[in-house]
Each structure stands twice: as structure tokens, then as C-alpha cells.
Amino acid sequence: RATNDLSKLPSGMETDGLSDLKLAGCERSEEDIDRQMAG
Known about the structure:
mainly alpha; rod-shaped
């Protein structure tokens, strides 16, 4: 499904979108872990 969604995006948006999603995912995962540890 990920590949299909990327194919729909305009050229140039793929790399930027992937980098943004990866960064956001890492940040969110870290925040979730911190919250779990704090909780």
C-alpha cells in the first residue's frame, strides 16, 4: 500500500515526504517511549 500511495504523489514529493514521515515517526516513537518510561 505504501508504494501505491507514493506513486500517487507528484514527482519530488516522494523523497521529501518519506524523509518527513521517517523523521516524524522516529520523533513520535521516541516521545512515546519517553512517556511510557515516565508513566
